[in-house]
Specification:
With 199 residues, the chain is an alpha/beta fold. The chain is 27% helix and 21% strand. Strands 7-6-5-8-9 form a 5-stranded parallel β-sheet, sandwiched between helices. Strands 1-2 form a two-stranded antiparallel sheet. Strands 3-4 form a two-stranded antiparallel ribbon.
């Protein structure tokens, strides 16, 4: 297994993926560097939930239906990599604030950009706000934008995605039967942060 760790988040990985061993090799730190990642089976519970939400709500009923997916926050690219394996090759747009995440995802997590799977280094909130009303709506909007600070009241989502203003822009960009899924994480015992997300 390959994990993306942070020097400030001691309680867990930011992302993780299973590896496909080269035939005849056993795992070592050296030889596993060249092993491919398994894109069709996310490992971390949060990745599974962000993906399953689209199926539970009925937004995705088959991997053969055409889909338009927006992800805000790339992480180790496990969620968008999963959707990129669908037979119909959905239209996937990923907005990531930090360019280093794109570099890490391409080098270590099997991220491959295609005409249908694009990464933009930009501010996700501004992207939603500035998108014209007549743009194609997204069947799924997945927000996985987090702080890299365990002392934050809420690590995910970042403050801007907890506002009523941004909620109206999310709604404006979401298809009528679309699904919003959002990562919410706190290492605190306080529930105030979660209540702010729900308002």
């Amino acid at each position: 297994m390959r994990k993306l760790l942070s020097n400030t988040m001691n309680d867990g990985a930011l992302s993780a993926t299973e590896l496909i061993a080269t035939p005849g090799e056993t795992f070592t730190k050296e030889n596993s560097k060249s092993w491919q990642v398994k894109k069709d089976g996310p490992v971390m519970p949060v990745s599974k939930v962000l993906i399953m939400a689209q199926f539970i709500t009925g937004t995705i009923q088959s991997e053969y239906q055409p889909l338009n997916i927006l992800m805000i926050g790339l992480g180790g690219s496990t969620v968008n990599n999963f959707f990129s394996q669908f037979a119909t090759k959905p239209n996937i747009t990923v907005i990531e604030l930090d360019g280093i995440m794109e570099d890490i995802s391409k080098k270590w997590f099997g991220l491959e950009e295609t005409i249908n799977h694009r990464i933009y280094i930009a501010d996700g909130a501004k992207y939603l706000i500035n998108r014209p009303d007549n743009s194609q709506k997204f069947d799924a909007i997945i927000i996985d934008a987090c702080y890299n600070d365990p002392t934050s009241e809420l690590i995910c989502p970042v403050e801007v995605f907890r506002s009523v203003d941004i909620a109206s822009h999310v709604k404006r960009n979401l298809a009528p039967m679309g699904t919003l899924s959002m990562n919410s994480i706190s290492f605190s015992n306080q529930t105030d942060g979660f209540q702010k997300v729900g308002r």
